[in-house]
Amino acid sequence: MSKEKVQIFDTTLRDGEQAAGTRLGAREKLEIARQLVRLNVDIIEAGFPASSPEDFEAVRLISEQIEGPVICGLTRAIKKDIEVCQKALKKAKRSRIHTGIGVSEIHIAGKFADDKYGRTMGEKQATILKMAVEAVRHTAGYTDDIEFYAEDSGRADRAFLYEILEAVIDAGATVVNIPDTTGYSMPEQYGALIRDIRANVPNIEKATISVHCHDDLGMAVANSLAGVKNGARQVEGTINGVGERAGNAAIEEVVMAIHTRHDFFEEVQTNINTREFYRTSRMVADLLGMPVPANKAVVGRNAFAHSSGIHVDGFLKKRETYEIMRPETIGLAESRVVLTARTGRHGLQHRLEEMGYTLSKAELDKTYERFLAVADKKTEVFDDDLAAIISDEIHVVEQIYEMQYLHVACGTGTLPTASVKIKTKDQTNQAAACGDGPVDAAYEAIRLATGLSPKLENYSIRAVTSGKEALGEATVRITEDGRTFIGRGISTDIIEASARAYIDAINRMVSAQNKGQQPEVKAEL
Ligand code: KIV
Ligand code: ZN
Description:
Distance between the termini: 50 Å
Largest sheet: 8 strands, parallel, barrel
CATH class of the largest domain: Alpha Beta
Shape: globular
Radius of gyration: 25 Å
Strand content: 15-25%
Strand order of the largest sheet: 2-3-4-5-6-7-8-9
Number of domains: 3
Bound molecules: 3-methyl-2-oxobutanoic acid, zinc ion
């Protein structure tokens, strides 16, 4: 039986990056996009260019540098958004514009409450339909690869949904995206929605149906698969399921379900190179600062670990007893390379390339220097240590404040005290402070030295690898004027890692404040 292809649309860099408290710079997005090429996704949604100058730059850079997948940009059903998106995508070999509008009554009443859109729901729906068709027609002036999203389809009035889909397909949409924006649907309902769209939208054969599911009730993957079973031929999702609120459908889970249960999904296949899943998952986790839970399906640390006596015994006798997928299929269980201070620059570069990172000479120099410092303290440096070093070194945040010195004194029965020296472009400031603990003292000293006191919302520390010399990775979340910034820092010394994380967050905050004073993306960009 010949199989139909299900296109995989990766939105890690757009919807995934909308996860609370995360932010990727253009350089980090480019690194992930390169890895998505190795994974062989069909479409990369690189960002929402009209949303910020940073997103515009990321989409522009990815369009210029990435070959293979279609590069897609998101817009609202607004002409200016579409024009900005087109400019960002200009250099892409193959590009797609993803435009759309809210279609459920809840969305329409909430977002289009103003009487200028109509006074009754019927009048408002007529306006929404007109805006959708105009947006698609306008997009058709730039590309013939047009995807339309009917936001909150999962809760939309069916008759209106069918009507708007028919109209946008007539206007030129080649893909229609049916998002379950709020993760409200159950798999049977969502599957039926796709089946009913195929039965009730007369011109549906002219477009590909795409599924885009959120995980608010933990159904995103099940709903996406129900959509495929009922005729959808594009699945949208993110690596590790990162995204708004509870996240999006995890691509690795959707694809491995289709792959492992080919008996059940006998009519379809994907072109994904599943052996790149583990690597991609680690890279996304590290660059986004969102560690993968140990029990996460497919890519979690324990996904292939057998520990209870009965399981281990059964597994050793015949692995299929307790294992439905081979770890090699997702790129796990390759040689566990251990690097040491004697590995050398070339060996380090080789390993980084195997892990999927492509660094410039300057980045490699910085990484090597940091690697040597870590290797000096730890006898063995593992892949996870390297990934942490990379995410610490290559992120593009401007080093407005740089820590030159940190001394902390603490112990039982003493008052924890810290002193820091912090350099800026024009001056060096020193400060000392006491606190409830060594981290608190260090943070107070940093606040005094920088003259900044953003609210500390969250602080966490984790060991990147095991052992008493493990690298510690600290993550902090700070807020100022209602905006949140995440900072990360690593070191074999957890107080130093904590201080680095705090300064990283402050650098992101000040850099965003400086950029906020610059003009918005202009039409001529
Ligand atoms: O969840 C959603 O509805 C979306 C659309 C913007 C595609 O992300
Ligand atoms: Zn979404």
